[in-house]
Design a protein that fits this description.
9 helices, 163 residues, mainly alpha, two-stranded antiparallel sheet, elongated, two-stranded antiparallel ribbon
Length: 163
């Protein structure tokens, strides 16, 4: 599956925009149903697009754990790899791919202490689906799991509306 195919992405983006504008009352139930079994056939290690093209947001707790794990002073980690996002003050990677990604194996060098943002990615099971539509729109062309979930949501809603 080539999720970069805009002929497949555009309808799903339009779908998410419609859902955001006029969410059905059962959107959470639909998202949960759509999330069932989406991981079948998806291998994150063969993809690693999230690590190759995006940056997590690092919390203070994340940074402390990483500093201990790497046995590096926190200020050195920040200086070497991170930048503060304008407006939010969030800590982000300076570059992509992520400095902790082994590009040969797609394994994370700090997996045991990876940021909470990484551990929760692609954030499909957030309590209020409607509040995370913007995140799903951002992840749609990078994450096969997000693509598959949104595609399934659309199918379920079309099926539900035709009954």
């Amino acid at each position: 599956m080539n999720i970069k195919d805009t002929t497949r992405l555009k309808p799903l983006l339009r779908f998410l925009n419609r859902v955001k504008r006029d969410p059905p009352g059962d959107i959470q139930d639909i998202a949960i149903k759509a999330g069932n079994k989406i991981w079948d056939g998806i291998d994150c290690l063969s993809c690693a697009n999230c690590c190759k093209t995006m940056t997590p947001t690092y919390t203070g707790k994340d940074l402390k754990k990483i500093a201990v794990y790497l046995k590096m002073p926190l200020r050195e980690i920040k200086k070497k790899w991170l930048k503060k996002e304008r407006g939010t003050g969030n800590w982000l990677n300076k570059t992509t791919p992520c400095q902790f990604l082994d590009l040969t194996t797609n394994l994370c060098g700090i997996y045991e202490v990876r940021p909470a943002d990484c551990a929760g990615f692609p954030h499909l099971n957030k309590r209020k689906m409607i509040d995370y539509i913007h995140v799903h729109k951002q992840n749609l062309d990078e994450c096969p799991a997000t693509f598959k979930m949104v595609e399934r949501m659309k199918e379920l809603m079309v099926k539900e509306n035709s009954q």
